[in-house]
Amino acid sequence: MRKITLIASLLLVLTLVLTACAPTVAPTEAPVVVEETEAPVVEETAVEATEAPEPEAVVNPNTADFTFVGEPDVVFDLNKWYGDVGVEADVTIRSAGAARVPDVMTTAMPKANEKYTIGFSVYYTVDEVGSMILESMKAAAEEAGVELLINDANYDQNAQNQAIEQWILQDVDGVILAPCDFTGVKTALDALKAAGIPVVTLNAPLAGEVDSLVIGDTVEQGAIAGALLEKAMLDSGKEMKGTVVYQTLPFVHPNAATRAKGFVDTFTKYPDIKIVELTGISPEEHYTAFDGALKAYPDMIGAWGLYSSATIGMMNAKTANNSEVLLSSVDQDKPILKGIYDGIIVGTAAYSSIAPARWCMSQMVNLLNGAPIPGVLFYATKEITPDNVVEMFEYYYPGKTLQDYIEGKVQ
Amino acid sequence: MHANVETAPKSRTTFMKLLIRYRTLVILIVLMTVFSLLRPVFIDPKNLLAILKNMSYVLVVGLGMTFIITLGGLDLSVGSIAAVVGVTFAMLVRGGTMAPIPALLIVLVLSMLLGFFNGFVSVKGKIEPFLVTLATMNIYRGLALTLTKGKPVPIVIPHFADIFGNGRLFGVIPTPVIISLVIFAISWFVYTQTKFGFFVRSIGGNQEASRVAGIEISKVKLAAYTMSGVYAFISGLILAALMNSGLPDAGRDLALDAISGVILGGTALLGGVGTMWGTLGGCLIIASLNNGMSLLGAQYHVQILVKGLVIIFAVLMDNAFKSRQR
Predict the structure, then answer these.
(1) Are residues A198 and A270 in the same domain?
(2) Cβ contacts of B306 on chain A, cutoff 8 Å
(3) What is the pTM (predicted TM-score) of this model?
């Protein structure tokens, strides 16, 4: 009898948990539909917008925020961009032009002409960046007046592809996709193409067709991290001679490859500096690798964490070893910002987790509304150093302060 | 009157017995009902086919795992073997280096060797299969990463994706579903109708008694782990076809999903007892959970929480079933 009661209780808990999931995807409330227009077929609208723009087409309300890189009517050569760092790519971007955009829109989020249903698949939400992107996307959907369906793929490309299949079945109007695997995502992109559903990706895939990409200039991010480290080394009077270690992922990730290029290029002018690459995934792995490197390279004069897990592992190893090695980073996780404040890290190349989500939504809604959109949007990268870390903490984490974080008042 | 008083508890007991006996089916029906109520698109035939398609590569590995777990063993390395299969095949056929058929044969032999290695080290070294396959899981994953230098390898040969991944029989049934059901039928036959299947169950039930009965335990175990490599080979091909590329990171959660499916299906972790139908049901539960929670937009932390609850629920029902049998 006890066992049966236990089983029944578990069943109840399970049902409650599943039911609790439902509101997560409950349609977001459409604030106000701007105006009633004759509802065109969405797929046709998308194709018209990208392939045969009409002169009288809807104006993109965000144009004032675009600073075009190159000619606005020329499709950005993403394959070359990747090819320059040795990463093979075969991507077709359906929209022309590439533009840099600010973190904060000076223009308004476009309102949906009708109640679009948009699927958003995020690569993961188990860290702060992923969670913030998801929350920002929900807020942007509400602001634009669209229904948002969500998928948390947790770095499983097959799970992401399955979600896309489901959305095609549900006849969504558009999909915003943050790929898990930059090659494996092609299956999902092919399926969307076959179904005639427009797609905007957050980060650039290596294969397939997209209407538009919203990406960070990852080469620039690496270059900024390199420059921060270089400046710190020069300021501290170090002889530019010895080993510089950087830590990346154990597999080829296009963002990592492009960041690494930007960083390594910074030091090519110093022939006596040897660059050593180490790999890992979790902070623990990076800790162990860097702990060993601190002993293996007594001539180490600088180090760089290519992404947050790397930096967090490295800064803990540095502290544990009382090392004086200068360390720079990319990403703006709170422990990294605290590390900058504490003087353990010289600086980081940071980018908003809110802006990319907003720009993805803006691109998708404009596309569905029939407005022309740039094929690529580069969101901004900013330097964070000990001089501005307090302000930048509040900038990237609105409503929170570094002091509160240090005192444990905020997570 | 007296008879009526006795009938009520009896029928309740019979109902509980049925409920517990067909626990896998019960869980599946409950889940499908809940998901259908929350998201009606769940029972759309196209979505149900998508569930079957996405279950296929887990089921294939789960069928092999049923032999292993019935033996009282475990194989954590199947996901890594599937990754090795995908990347090796992709590399062999890349740029027309090799024709697909010889490449498939080479990769098949390779996956059998990897499976055999698991069994060999475990049997000859007298090491727990859990420890051996924990180690080889890392070794084989490292192999896949080393071979590719961490890069995905696109598979561009014609028809591969159609045959193993995204093709449809009669334009309706996804080919991975057909493949997995054929493998299921073969596995069911081997498990229930052949001497080998009997030996597997005997060894898992009582190794000493099996030895006394003259069953060559080492050979049976070696064969089962080698077969597990073959199942991982098929699963790896499906995964590679679904992704159009060999991914060194593929199949990361494959072993745990398959083990969960097998346990949900009623195969005892201690060995000796198992059913292929149960594994099919268990894998369907896992696939339905993945699909349903994706439709609900559940975040990863909720997904793993629910999966864990379902597994505990199934194990409790399994225990209740056994205690009633006693």
Answers:
(1) no
(2) 14, 17-18, 21
(3) 0.78
- Test A152 with B297 for CB contact under 8 angstroms: yes
Q: Same domain for A84 and A170?
A: yes
Tell me, yes or no, whether A164 lies in a domain: yes
Minimum-distance CB partner of B150 among A159, A206, A252? A252
Residue A96 located in a structural domain: yes
Q: Which two tokens stand for residue B209?
A: 């008694």
Report long-range pairs for B217-222 (Cβ below 8 Å, ≥24 apart): B218/B123, B218/B124, B220/B71, B220/B196, B221/B71, B221/B73, B221/B119, B221/B122, B221/B123, B222/B116, B222/B119, B222/B120, B222/B123
Say if residue A92 is in the same domain as residue A112: yes
Choose among B249, B295, B313: nearest Cβ to A166. B295
A165 interfaces chain B, CB cutoff of 8 Å: yes
Give how many domains chain A has, as a whole number. Answer: 2
C-alpha to C-alpha distance for A261 and A274, rounded to whole angstroms:
15
**CB nearest A183 (choices: B152, B295, B297):** B152
Does A276 map to a domain? Answer: yes
Mark whether A141 and A47 lie in a shared domain.
yes
A201 with A224, same domain: the answer is no
In contact, A153 and A188? CB cutoff 8 Å:
no
Residue A339 belongs to domain with CATH number: 3.40.50.2300
Question: What is the pLDDT tens value at each position of chain A, 411 positions in all?
Answer: 555 555 555 555 555 555 554 443 333 333 333 333 333 333 333 444 455 555 566 889 999 999 999 899 999 999 998 888 888 899 999 999 999 999 999 999 999 999 999 999 998 876 777 888 999 999 999 999 999 999 998 888 888 999 999 999 999 999 999 998 888 899 899 999 999 999 999 988 999 999 999 999 999 999 999 999 999 999 999 889 999 999 998 877 888 989 999 999 999 999 999 999 998 878 888 999 999 999 999 999 999 999 988 999 999 999 999 999 999 999 999 999 999 999 999 999 999 989 999 999 999 999 999 999 999 999 999 999 999 999 999 999 989 999 999 998 877
**Domain encompassing residue A169:** 39-210+353-380
CB distance B316–A150 less than 8 Å?
A: no
Instruction: Looking at the structure, tell me whether residues A372 and A388 fall in a common domain.
Output: no
Residues A373, A390 share a domain: no
**Residue A253 sits in the same domain as residue A400:** yes
- Residues in chain B closer than 8 A to A154 (CB atoms): 300, 303
Separation of CA A180 from chain center? 11
User: Residue A282 falls within a domain, yes or no?
Assistant: yes
Is the CB of A169 less than 8 angstroms away from the CB of B46? Answer: yes
Quick one: A363 exposed, middle or buried, by C-beta within 10 A (0-12, 13-18, 19+)?
buried
Pairing of strands B245-246, A67-68: unpaired
Q: What is the C-alpha to C-alpha distance for residues B267 and A242, in angstroms, rounded to an integer?
A: 59
Classify residue A34 by its DSSP letter: -
